[in-house]
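Amino acids appear as letters; backbone shape is given numerically. Here is one record.
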Amino acid sequence: MRGWVGIAVVALIALAGFWVWRDYQTWLALGPSEVSADVRGWIAVTQQGLLEGRDGLDTTRYDKTIAEQKECAFLGGYLPKREGQRPHVGHWIAPHRQLDQFAAPDMKKRGEALFTEAAAQDAERLTIKKSAIEIGTDALFVKKAGATAESEAGHVHTNDGALHVIVGAADAATVIETEWGQAHPLAGRGNLPDGYVMVYAPRNERELVIAQRIVIAAIGHVGDYRCVNLSAGEQRP
């Protein structure tokens, strides 16, 4: 009996070791982030995620802010439901990435253009510079009327094609509930706003249009634009 127990213990240790090795290798393959690409970096993001991370699909965090009606709902409270299953998203806090359903190369470029074209159309209030949240990534910054400093609205990932944007509570809930994205595990903690969400990588023209609407909502929220529905396209029946 003791022999079988010993074998079972060894097998469990081997399985745990294999999981740890695979998890580490998968994390490394996601590319650079603000932590060192080594075992210490992997341990740090894994530990912080376990201790401080929240369910990215939980929208109850937004209930109080929505009830107070202090923020605009630039999406008008509606998006058509995303087709198919949600992509798998890594559990790590950095980098926060999709693990499948990646955007095709041309869609990645068009996703990047959502930000660069917006900046070109309103150079007085919008600009592209290095992200203050995700090191080494270009991001769209918005200048509020009468302000001198800019605030980050979002950026796109060159590896998976997904976007990170900062939207208001109502718009964040809309994005999550219609399955277009999910909140970052640390949204609402540290320097990350509650409305810091990942928008899944657009897979086709229709999804690119939705992503554009969400980017416009982020610009409206961060720039403190006049409280109107900036979203275009399908409306609630």
Observations:
- The mean pLDDT is 88.
- The longest helix spans residues 2-29.
- Residues 128 and 140 are 5 Å apart (CA to CA).
- The helical segments are 2-29, 39-52, 63-68, 105-121, 169-177, 205-222.
